[in-house]
């Protein structure tokens, strides 16, 4: 009887093992197919940026063009001086905005997670309240232009995205998981609050900082709306707003206003749209792998801890 039971158990394990392998293979196929579907528009965008203008107009966008044409990239990099300056503006606001945002929001999260701070719940309520209601576009515009005098200033694109209630609460929840004994030991040794925050809490909050930093960088890199409202000088256009102007108003009159002199026959307008998209997302694709390992853990801890 014991031998028969062992044989039956072995058969059951083999069947379960086969079923598990089949299920894994099935899910791998589904995930691979889904990844390819998501990758298809990206590949189509890249290949279309190298297509001839006439081929796009007559045959549409294709993964495998008949010939490789670099006219769109030559136009962007050889004729457009504003592209380089817009890249510089976007890099500036992305770096400055991300660093300042991480600094202020991590300090806010540190203060709100401190149990000895008497009014932390009241302040947290006011921060949460801003996620439900806002002042609106007109008061915001009046504040930025008349109150702060930031018309046609790079700071008008940095300040609106500097603080995020969601990111502050994510930072607070993450810092709640840090043992209070670390703060107490630092206080016993005579360390001040800022020293404890900077030397103890910030190094331990790298996953949360990387997660929030990624969101901030993406937000500033894709900035165009505030530029449309506040920026007047073409030299201060961020990359996305500059490319948006090219895509929506790609005609000879706009190009002449921007100091670009080309004939209509030399203007690959359709391939320019794809080339500008490739130029815009390239740096973000290079940055994302470095913060990916922190991304999941930062989101998970911030979501689980209450």
Please characterize this protein's 3D structure.
This protein has 306 residues and is mainly α. The chain contains 15 helices and no strands. Helix 1 packs antiparallel against helix 15 (269-304), helix 3 crosses helix 15 (269-304) and helix 4 (81-113) crosses helix 8. The chain is flat. The N and C termini lie far apart (53 Å).
Question: What secondary-structure arrangement, pairings included, does this model have?
Answer:
Elements lengths: L1 H48 L3 H7 L11 H9 L1 H33 L6 H10 L7 H11 L7 H4 L6 H12 L3 H9 L4 H12 L1 H16 L3 H6 L8 H10 L3 H6 L11 H36 L2
Helix pairs in contact: 1-15, 3-15, 4-8, 4-11, 4-13, 8-15, 11-15, 13-15
Organism: Anaerocolumna cellulosilytica
Subcellular location: Cell membrane
Family: Belongs to the binding-protein-dependent transport system permease family.
Brief write-up:
Keywords: Cell membrane, Membrane, Transmembrane, Transmembrane helix, Transport. It is built from 15 helices and no strands.
Key descriptive features of the protein:
306 residues, 15 helices, disordered C terminus, cell membrane, transmembrane helix, transmembrane, membrane, Sugar ABC transporter permease
Strand element count: 0
Helix content class? over 70%
Uncertain spans: 261-266, 298-306
The major beta sheet can be summarized as: none
The total domain count is 2
Order of helices and strands: HHHHHHHHHHHHHHH
Gyration radius over CA? 27 Å
Strand content: under 5%
CATH fold descriptor of the largest domain: MetI-like fold
CATH architecture of the largest domain: Orthogonal Bundle
Structural class: mainly alpha
pLDDT averaged over residues: 78
Q: How many separate helices?
A: 15
Would you state the CATH class of the largest domain? Mainly Alpha
| CATH superfamily membership of the largest domain | MetI-like
Net shape: flat
Distance between the termini: 53 Å
């Amino acid at each position: 009887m014991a031998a028969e039971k062992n044989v039956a158990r072995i058969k059951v394990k083999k069947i379960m093992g086969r079923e598990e392998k089949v299920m894994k293979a099935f899910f791998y196929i589904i995930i691979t197919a889904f990844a390819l579907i998501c990758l298809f528009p990206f590949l189509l965008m890249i290949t279309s940026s190298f297509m001839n203008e006439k081929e796009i107009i007559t045959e549409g966008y294709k993964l495998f063009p008949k010939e490789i044409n670099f006219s769109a990239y030559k136009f962007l990099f050889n004729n457009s001086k504003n592209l380089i300056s817009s890249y510089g503006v976007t890099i500036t606001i992305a770096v400055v905005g991300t660093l300042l945002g991480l600094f202020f929001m991590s300090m806010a999260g540190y203060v709100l997670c401190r149990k000895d701070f008497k009014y932390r719940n009241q302040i947290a309520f006011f921060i949460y309240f801003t996620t439900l209601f806002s002042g609106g576009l007109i008061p915001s515009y009046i504040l930025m232009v008349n109150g702060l005098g930031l018309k046609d200033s790079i700071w008008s694109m940095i300040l609106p995205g500097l603080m995020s209630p969601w990111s502050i609460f994510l930072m607070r929840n993450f810092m709640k998981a840090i043992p209070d004994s670390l703060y107490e030991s630092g206080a016993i040794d005579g360390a001040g609050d800022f020293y404890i925050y900077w030397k103890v809490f910030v190094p331990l909050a790298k996953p949360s900082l990387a997660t929030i930093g990624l969101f901030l960088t993406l937000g500033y890199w894709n900035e165009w709306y505030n530029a449309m409202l506040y920026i007047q000088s073409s030299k201060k256009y961020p990359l996305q707003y500059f490319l948006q102007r090219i895509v929506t108003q790609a005609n000879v009159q706009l190009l002449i206003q921007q100091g670009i002199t080309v004939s209509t026959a030399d203007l690959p307008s359709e391939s320019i749209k794809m080339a500008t998209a490739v130029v815009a997302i390239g740096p973000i694709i290079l940055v994302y792998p470095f913060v990916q390992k922190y991304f999941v853990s930062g989101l998970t801890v911030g979501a689980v801890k209450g």
